[in-house]
């Protein structure tokens, strides 16, 4: 369905992916940043759900008009509490032994490199294939995923730029469930009052989890490989697609106020 079919007047929270959902060409535009502020001022609960590291979550929660940022594919979240930022970890253990797995992969494919934000991660490891050159081809990405699938106790997911892998069964969904149980109860916001926005296969579980799941237009090439699709699609890609949703929600709120 198109975005106009979204039950906008019911939405009280926006949970969104970061890379290629809020950003275009790895940056957030002034227009997208402005609508984030407009959503915040209008009273929407704003949450970023990302594979990016805990260090990023701390910084963005301090600087951006967001309430929470789920980091490292569900390992925890950062939250603004007045003038403080509080980090909640949902899993135990660090990323130490994951570097050994990466080293074994790199022995076979020397072109592999860790994501430049790896130093800011607490619980997972990220292999960069499309963020900074030189980029990796799809055959190499698929090989990495198949190798990681053989590692006992390791979960691996691919985003639009990274292959993330970690130990444990936590996911973006488990973190969203926990956040809704703890914070959603205080705000009296349920799952069906959240609009989730994403762009890639690693958002697929959340496309299934949230009834009001929105895909920005750049999700289209991946739909044939996904079992769970976003219920609504924007016309524009990336940040401009997010802006479409924001304007729909803000217009609906004004009409119903």
Structure description:
By secondary structure, the chain is of the alpha/beta class. The chain has 7 helices and 11 strands. The protein has an 8-stranded mixed sheet, sandwiched between helices. Helix 1 (30-41) links the parallel strand 1 and strand 2. Helix 1 packs parallel to helix 7. The longest helix is centred in the C-terminal third of the chain and has 19 residues, at 238-256. The chain starts with 12 loop residues before the first strand and ends with a helix. The model has no long low-confidence stretch (mean pLDDT 95).
Features:
three-stranded antiparallel β-sheet, 257 residues, eight-stranded mixed β-sheet, alpha/beta
Please state the CA-atom Rg, rounded to the nearest Å. Answer: 18 Å
> What structural class should be given to the helix and strand makeup?
alpha/beta
Strand content: 15-25%
Characterize the biggest β-sheet: 8 strands, mixed
Helical content, roughly? 25-40%
Q: Indicate the mean pLDDT.
A: 95
The span between the termini is 26 Å
Unreliable spans are: none
Structural shape: globular
Order of helices and strands: EHEHEEEHEHEEHEHEEH
